[in-house]
Design goal:
There is one protein chain. With 91 residues, this protein is mainly alpha-helical. It has three helices and four strands. It has one domain (5-90). It has helices spanning 5-15, 35-54, 70-90, and strands at residues 20-22, 28-29, 61-63, 67-68. Strands 1-3 form a two-stranded parallel ribbon. Strands 2-4 form a two-stranded parallel ribbon. Helix 2 (35-54) packs antiparallel against helix 3 (70-90). The longest helix has 21 residues, at 70-90. The radius of gyration is 19 Å and the shape is rod-shaped.
C-alpha cells in the first residue's frame, strides 16, 4: 500500500470513499523489549503514514498515531535484567 499511493487513491475514488483514517493493525507497538526501539518504531511508522498519505492529501486521509508500549517494554527489560542477576548469583 505504501508504494502506490495514486492507485490507492484511485481505488478509494472508484468506490466513492471520500475520506479514510489510516491506522496500524494495533494502536500501539507491542512485543519489543527495548523502550527506545519501541518508541523509534512508533515514530517511524507514524512518519511514514503521514508522509505517504496525510501530507499529500489531508482532505482524503487522516490517521491514528501509533504509540510505543513503553511500560510493557520497560517491565520486560526489568524482569529480564532481574533474571540475569539471579542466574549470575547462582553461578
Amino acid at each position: 500500500m505504501w508504494d502506490d499511493n495514486k492507485a490507492y487513491q484511485d481505488e478509494l475514488n472508484r468506490l466513492g470513499i471520500v475520506h479514510t483514517v489510516m491506522s496500524l493493525t494495533s494502536p500501539r507497538v507491542q512485543g519489543i523489549d527495548a523502550p527506545k526501539t519501541a518508541v523509534d518504531l512508533a515514530h517511524s511508522s507514524n512518519q511514514d503514514a503521514y508522509d505517504h498519505y496525510v501530507k499529500s492529501n489531508p482532505k482524503q486521509f487522516s490517521m491514528f498515531a501509533a504509540v510505543a508500549d513503553v511500560l510493557t517494554a520497560a517491565l520486560g527489560w526489568y524482569l529480564y535484567r532481574r533474571q540475569v542477576r539471579k542466574v549470575n548469583q547462582a553461578l
